[in-house]
Design a protein that fits this description.
This protein has 592 residues and is α/β, with parallel strands linked by helices. Helix content is 20%, strand content 25%. The chain is built from 13 helices and 29 strands.
């Protein structure tokens, strides 16, 4: 094809990167100099070369609009001062190599969304499942056709939904350098997690393509699930560049939100952008007050406050109730508060009850990386054990952890694999472990089926009862005229919360109206001490009694009854009670 067959004009500076239309292409670049643009077809045949010196738009932006008979697939690359330069806005690559000499690939195709509609789930009904694209299905036991790829996640959507989750947070899916070099030691290591510099408009080549992400989002929406992207922007990136990237993923990927990790992003600007108007924006905090146009109901805050206090409480620390009681009631008005016990940057749930100390020797930093304060308890032995007493306590603590991770006023986040006790052998900073240490071992789903079944059960319980996840914060008052507050704290004695250093027992009562306007009540008794404790529960209305629904210390779920001294709870155990109607005696039936 000859150059004169193309019509070349100055293009539009925004959006950055490649924009295609019917017979035209707009390419806007910020290459740090005057770029030379090389374009070829998919077979490698040169189509044209453009010196962009004549197409400066404004500032450091060069943009060119080229009209002609564009093929379905074509490639381009940039040169600046005789050296190949990366295009930070590229959306495709002709190979998996990270070299800047690699051509960027553009494939002209319109994805058929078939009337795709996002679920728009409110925060109080949201259950977030966080995963790593490769680690989720790369293990041989995953039994998916596309291991370690976006399509592999799509194959597992039904599993995630069946667990009870309705939202998925994906760790970085954009293209990143798969290896990094330590400046001090010159050691080269895997960049498994993907944080750091990247091509923020391009899918990581190892994970698949933009179309794969589109199919994932489309299928998730059909199942009533949302998809969020975790993004960590570098400090040097401008606010407008960040906005442009987020717009790209919303317009092209239909994603439902973003977790702006360790964000230096201009959150207020993002919240006021009309293109992002219905998209969740979640980060570690919002420094400025919300305005009406920002729609507070789309914002969510991630923080470690609940993680720290809940772990101390789970461990049985003295007087650990106070901090946990405060954190479990946190709720940001109409916005979301994302609460969790585990995340990728720390112990998995299994390791939380199996290790006191980090074991990051494989990371090559002499076990100095990762937090040294894990707030964990190994239940008596560091690491794997065959001792029955240790295994029994770990089983109980895992169940306790699941209840703590769900029963609070925030939005629960679950780290993938915690539902079947996935372990990283005590590594709490597996950022460079692209191996079986970080890949989920799906064989555990069978061997630890008891934990999966328990997790599924407590998720279903929380979802089924609005009193566990109300749209507004608890009033801690008798708002329904039932004779009980909507939520109340108790100690081992009802209506009285003990004080002192030994305080690690607490009860939580939830009340509301059932479909007939009568009292509905649940009571969760927490005994995080290392000894058995007697709990007396609040008296109920005539004709009602407390019945045990879940007991984390009772594997067989034998019927527990109230004794003269109240309810006896095992050490390190949680019991969930439900108020039930007593069956009437024959005499009461006759009198009625």
């Amino acid at each position: 094809m000859k150059k004169q067959q193309w019509k070349i004009d100055r293009g539009q500076p925004l959006p950055y990167g490649v924009t295609t239309g019917d017979g035209w292409v707009n390419l806007s670049v910020t290459a740090g100099g005057v770029p030379l643009l090389e374009i070829r077809d998919s077979s490698g045949k040169e189509l044209l070369s453009v010196d962009m010196a004549s197409y400066a738009c404004t500032g450091d932006v060069y943009a060119v609009r080229i009209e002609g008979a564009w093929p379905v697939c074509w490639q381009y690359r940039l040169q600046v001062d005789g050296r190949y330069a990366a295009d930070p806005w590229q959306t495709g690559r002709s190979g998996k190599c990270a070299s800047e000499e690699t051509f960027c690939e553009v494939r002209r195709c319109a994805f058929d969304w078939e009337g795709d509609c996002p679920p728009k789930i409110p925060y109080e009904e949201l259950y977030i499942y966080k995963l790593h694209i490769k680690g989720f299905t790369n293990h041989a036991s995953s039994r998916v056709s596309h291991k370690g790829q976006i399509t592999g996640v799509t194959e597992k959507l039904a599993y995630i939904k069946d667990l009870g989750m309705n939202a998925i947070e994906l760790m970085p899916v954009y293209a990143f350098d798969p290896v990094v070099k330590d400046r001090a030691t010159q050691k080269v290591r895997n960049n498994y997690w993907g944080y750091g510099e990247g091509r923020f408009k391009m899918i990581h080549p190892e994970y698949g393509t933009l179309e794969d992400l589109q199919k994932l989002v489309k299928q998730a929406h059909r199942l009533g699930m949302e998809i969020y992207l975790e993004v960590l922007f570098p400090d040097h990136m401008s606010d407008l560049e960040k906005l442009d990237i987020l717009r790209y993923w919303v317009l092209n990927g239909h994603v439902d939100g973003f977790h702006l990790s360790q964000s230096t992003s201009p959150v207020n600007m993002l919240l006021q952008d009309p293109i992002l108007a219905n998209v969740r924006v979640m980060c570690e905090g919002f420094s400025s007050p919300m305005t009406v146009s920002m729609k507070e109901e789309r914002t969510g805050v991630y923080h470690n406050g609940y993680l720290e206090t809940a772990r101390r409480f789970l461990r049985g620390d003295r007087d650990s109730c106070c901090g946990w009681m405060w954190q479990m009631l946190q709720k940001r008005g109409q916005g979301g508060t994302i609460q969790y016990l585990t995340n990728n940057n720390g112990f998995t749930l299994m390791d939380l009850v199996s290790y006191n100390d980090r074991h990051n020797e494989a990371n090559g930093e002499d076990n100095r990386d990762g937090t040294a304060d894990n707030l964990s308890y190994n239940c008596g032995i560091e690491g794997p054990s065959r001792k029955r007493a240790v295994l029994t306590l770990r089983m109980r603590q895992l169940k306790n952890a699941w209840i703590l991770n769900l029963f609070h006023q925030g939005t629960p986040l679950v780290y993938a694999g915690d539902e079947f006790a996935n372990s990283q052998s005590g590594n709490n900073n597996a950022w460079c472990q692209d191996n079986e240490m970080s890949w989920l071992n799906w064989q555990l789903l069978k061997s630890k089926s008891w934990l999966y079944d328990f997790a599924k059960k407590v998720i279903a319980l929380r979802k089924s009862e609005l009193i566990f996840h109300p749209a507004r914060p608890y009033k801690m008052a008798d708002v329904d005229g039932l004779g009980y507050p909507d939520f109340s704290f108790h100690g081992k004695q009802p209506w009285f919360v003990e004080e002192g250093q030994e305080k690690n027992c607490v009860g939580c009562m939830y009340t509301g109206k059932d479909g007939e306007g009568s009292l509905k009540a649940y009571y969760i008794a927490y005994n995080m001490s290392d000894r058995m404790e007697q709990f007396h529960l609040p008296n109920l209305l005539n004709g009602m009694a407390w019945s045990v629904l879940i007991d984390t210390s009772d594997e067989e779920m034998t019927q527990k009854t109230e004794g003269e001294e109240g309810w006896l709870l095992e050490s390190h155990s949680i019991v969930i009670f439900k108020a039930v109607q007593l069956e009437k005696t024959d005499e009461e039936t006759k009198e009625g």
